[in-house]
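Here is one such tokenized protein:
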Amino acid sequence: LGDYDRGIQDYDISLEINLRYAEAYCSRGSAYEDLNLYNQAQEDYQACLMYCEEQTWCDTAKAALERLPNP
């Protein structure tokens, strides 16, 4: 746990394979958020919303965007 850089790399690879992989965007956004990289997190959560087909991921991304600090 806590190896955010490795997780981000894994999600990068997943997204190279499938740019519409909403779960990867949401999970990578969470890793960015935990690293206080809020701009990157926001971009990923927004991408998740664009591609999500499962309501769970849509809800997760919406909630995450609401809790991010304003720039």
